Amino acid sequence: MLLLQYDFKIEFYNTDKSKKSIDGIPFAEEIPKIIINTQDGIHIDISISNVYSNIHTISSKQAKVVLWNLPLDFTDHIKFGDIVKIHYKKFAHEKNFDFIMAGTLGPPMSTDYPGGDFSVELDIRLLTKSNFFNRKLENKNFKGKTVQEAIESVFPNRNILNMDEKDRLKIIDKDIYASTPKEFIDKIKGKYVHNVIADIGTGLRGYECYLIFTNYKKGGKMFTTRH
Length: 227
Hints:
Elements: E1 4-13, E2 34-37, E3 43-52, E4 59-68, E5 83-91, E6 98-105, E7 109-112, E8 118-125, H1 147-154, E9 158-162, H2 165-168, H3 181-188, E10 195-200, E11 209-214, E12 222-226
Parallel strand pairs: 4-10, 9-11
Antiparallel strand pairs: 1-2, 1-5, 3-4, 4-8, 5-6, 6-8, 7-8, 9-12, 10-11
């Protein structure tokens, strides 16, 4: 008889200040500074959903995590901006965890309860103001390019185009001038792209953020470029 049990492992990393990515997404240090494993008896409440970020035209994964009865000095060892990776497994007998998501940590909030319980609430977001949406673009005018060429030039190897060939190869015939990726998305959404969602990759390099550009049409084929 198999026991169905969802176990979670949450890893906290400092950012690696010695490495700089082209797109501004931080790298995690190789070794996590803290590992929380529910198999050790730590209770966790967790919810993961797609929500609109502070970049209002893009929805992305966000996790709300509440950890119970940790050491009282736990929050002294984590900080805003840490990289957090969340893993889970379905069955108690399994050895390996599957990766769910990664993101940056918001300000942790701790609560003491009259009965002696202690909880820490964590907000983990895939998108933040500090990552690659505010970097300066070299090519700022996209008139005359195809939609695919424009997207690939702004998000090289980090884009998934879920649209048919006609939409992908449509020529941008209007003056689309953008100095940052955020501004670029603001200007193409609703004109050349219906929806933009940020999603995670494998979690092997800090966290990998892919942008999924979608047009809602029946029979469209997904075209993907990524690392």
